[in-house]
Every structure is written in C-alpha cells, then in structure tokens.
Write a structure and sequence with these properties.
It contains 10 helices and 8 strands. With 219 residues, the protein is of the alpha/beta class. It is globular, with a radius of gyration of 19 Å. The mean pLDDT is 95.
Length: 219
C-alpha cells in the first residue's frame, strides 16, 4: 500500500464517521517522521510493513476508540514548542496561542513576574517563559497535571516554579501578570464526543454557568 492509498482509505473512513481527515494526515506524517512536504513527496511510495501496522493501529484508535490524535502520539505542538500530553491534561488549543500572543505583545515590563493559574500541561507558562525574559510561576490543583507540566518545562530547558494550589490558595507575593485559561464550560453544556470521552472534566467544567473560576480569579 502506498502513502496515497493509505491516506485516501482512512480519510474516507474519517469523513464517513464525521471525524476530521486532517487527523489522519497528522498521524501518518508524525509516525513516518515526515514533514507535510515529505509526505506528499512520498505519496506514491510503498509504506514499509512495520510502519503500516503502527500507523493503522494508531488510526484505528482515533476512528474506532475515539481517542484524540494528540493523546495517541503523546505530544502536541503549541507556540512552536513540543509538549507532552496525556489524559491528565487538556490538549492545548490554537485559541490559547492567541492569549499567549496577547500577553507577549502587550507586556511592557522588564523581567515581569508572571503567574499562570490552572497550568495543565504548562503550555501557557512555558510559551511565555520561552518568549519573555521573566520569572514564571504556574499552579494547578492536579498532581498528575503538574507532573506533565514539569516534564514539559524540563524538555524545553525552561525554569518555572510549579506549585500545587487551588487558584491562589498556596500562592504568595504579588505578580505583574496573571494569566489563566480556566475551566469555563457550564456543566449542562454539550461538548464534542472526542472531548467529553477523553479530556479531564476537572479542566473543562465549572459551576455558575462556567464562570466560577473567572469570578474567583477576578476577586
């Protein structure tokens, strides 16, 4: 089977199931160590047997078991950084990159003290530390999430102070910038099946119509 045949076969299956065909391309390229350009350059070449099995197993996890691609791979890319992810943390979204952009562009303080509340995978804290000369503290209530965040900071050679804390509970001192992407979905709201079945509900849902953490942080 060629890469073109492989992609066409599973792309069709994904679309028939109402799933994103871009996920198929991502799994094939990542598990083949291809860039997207290399993927198309190799379109008519045969997929090695062992690689074919590995890719097929991964794609079936996505199609049949409804596991997000990022959890299958064990990593994702955020703001140009490679970050580990598992079911203990939310998968960082592109919209969150816009928040990072905003903080970087609006910051006028030299070496600001930054606090990231509900850090999850550490995506925001790590991206800010990588792009602003700063002192960054990141907090989360989940031990499992903090382990992922700490590993991501280590992998990217960045020094960040991680604290287990329910919002400000264990946080001391003052900060120049406080940033957060907290749980914001109302408990009765329906979310995509892929999200509901896999991502941690602790990081998704909030009381008070999804506004609970916003109120707590702003107070």
């Amino acid at each position: 089977m060629t890469y073109k045949e492989l992609y066409t076969k599973y792309k069709t299956e994904a679309l028939n199931l109402g799933l994103e065909d871009s996920a198929i391309k991502l799994l094939i390229t990542e598990l083949s160590n291809f860039s997207f350009t290399e993927f198309y350059l190799n379109f008519d070449k045969k997929v090695p047997e062992e690689r074919l099995k590995k890719i097929a197993n991964a794609i079936n996890k996505y199609l049949l078991e409804k596991v997000p691609v990022q959890y299958i791979l064990g990593y994702t890319y955020f703001y140009g950084l490679k970050l580990n992810v598992n079911k203990s943390v939310l998968i960082p979204r592109r919209e969150t990159e816009e928040l990072v952009d905003y903080v970087i562009n609006e910051n006028k303080i030299t070496k600001p003290k930054i606090l990231d509340i509900g850090t999850g995978s550490g995506a925001i804290a790590i991206a800010l530390k990588a792009n602003i000369e700063s002192n960054v503290t990141a907090v989360d209530i989940s031990d499992a999430a903090l382990e992922v965040a700490k590993e991501n900071a280590r992998k990217n050679n960045l020094e960040i102070n991680f604290i287990k804390s329910d919002i400000f509970e264990n946080v001391k001192g003052r900060y120049d910038i406080i940033v957060s992407n907290p749980p914001y979905i109302a408990k009765e709201e329906i979310v995509a099946e892929l999200v509901y079945l896999n991502e941690p509900h602790l990081a998704l849902y909030a009381e008070a119509d999804g506004l609970y953490y916003y109120d707590k942080i702003l107070k």
